[in-house]
Amino acid sequence: MKHLSSQRFKNNNMQPTLVILAAGMASRYGSMKQTQGFGPSGETIMEYSIYDAIQAGFGKVVFIIREEFAEMFAENFGKKLAEKIKVDYVFQSLESYTEGKIIPEERKKPWGTAHAVLCCKEKVYEPFAVINADDYYGKDAFIKAYHFLTNHVADNNYAIIGYELKKTLSENGSVSRGVCNVDALGNLIDINERTKIYRNDKGVITYEDEKGLHEVSEDASVSMNFFGFHPNFIKQCAFYFTEFLDNEISNPKSEFFIPLVVDKIVKSNTGKVQVIPTSAQWFGVTYKEDAPTVQASINALVSAGAYPTNLWI
């Protein structure tokens, strides 16, 4: 897919949008962890992300959800955010943008995170960031994302907020991380999805694959699904989704992920992706056992004055 000539958003007064991936029900966690309260007033993890985004200058939040959750989201989040930031909803379904293709009966869930972004086609026309609903990213990440989206984003220039691997591990099991290979200018060369990453008995960060065990640098830059995009990226998702369906529609476990599209753009030289480092400490609920750590981390931030005891009053 060829890009149009590079075009930046010249109007620095245009407020970017925050897109939150909240359509999934987490099988490992065993419940709809996006709506579990961790803050002193029952705030969810994503409410802290929304608060940080508002403070950074974002002007709208778009929740990507399943349609059956619309009433619940409007009741739990829409009302409290109504006077704080513009709110909209996008519904991701299995049939969305499949252009009438026959979907195998064994396929039960939508097609992944890049498909979710594609579902924003009629809702998002400004520079936007994409995050997971169940990850805490930290204020620094939103400040840097806002700066990129208002000063540097272009139709062939995107961004990943890069976290230090050592700050993204769980004490309760292995994690999957997209390890970024970055050139001397800070641009992405490729993303390698590493599953089963953990700190071993000797304290060394290790990942497992079919070839065995491999060490990974403590300071390796990893993607936590925090991206900054020009709205043109949605067109890229549409283009590559057609290709994906042609090849993968019969595979019930195939998923059309954002890093897959990003990797194709980089390797086809149709765009570049800056990896913007952050020193922020990530935390999230990969496992149920992570919940007390998340609770303690948020309590510590509130006690330190980073957040009020109630975000929305």
Concise account of the structure shown:
With about 325 residues, the chain is an alpha/beta fold. The chain has helices spanning about 45-55, 70-80, 115-120, 140-150, 230-250, 260-265, 290-305; strands at about 15-20, 60-65, 85-90, 130, 135, 155-165, 175-180, 190-200, 205-210, 210-215, 220-230, 270-275, 285. It has a domain at about 15-155 and about 225-270 and about 280-305: Spore Coat Polysaccharide Biosynthesis Protein SpsA, Chain A (Alpha-Beta Complex), CATH 3.90.550.
Produce the secondary structure layout.
Elements: E1 17-21, H1 45-56, E2 60-65, H2 70-81, E3 86-91, H3 113-118, E4 128-132, E5 135-136, H4 139-151, E6 157-164, E7 175-182, E8 188-199, E9 205-209, E10 212-215, E11 221-229, H5 232-248, H6 258-267, E12 272-277, E13 283-284, H7 291-303
Parallel strand pairs: 1-2, 1-4, 2-3, 6-12
Antiparallel strand pairs: 4-11, 5-13, 6-11, 7-8, 7-11, 8-9, 9-10
Helix pairs in contact: 1-4
Q: How does this structure look, described?
A:
Helix content is 27%, strand content 25%. The protein is an alpha/beta fold and 313 residues long. It has a domain at 17-155 and 224-268 and 281-303: Alpha-Beta Complex (Spore Coat Polysaccharide Biosynthesis Protein SpsA, Chain A). Strands 1, 2, 3, 4, 6, 7, 8, 9, 10, 11 and 12 form an eleven-stranded mixed sheet that branches. α1 (45-56) crosses α4 (139-151). It is globular and about 50 Å long. The termini are far apart. The model is unreliable at 1-7 and 25-31 (pLDDT under 50).
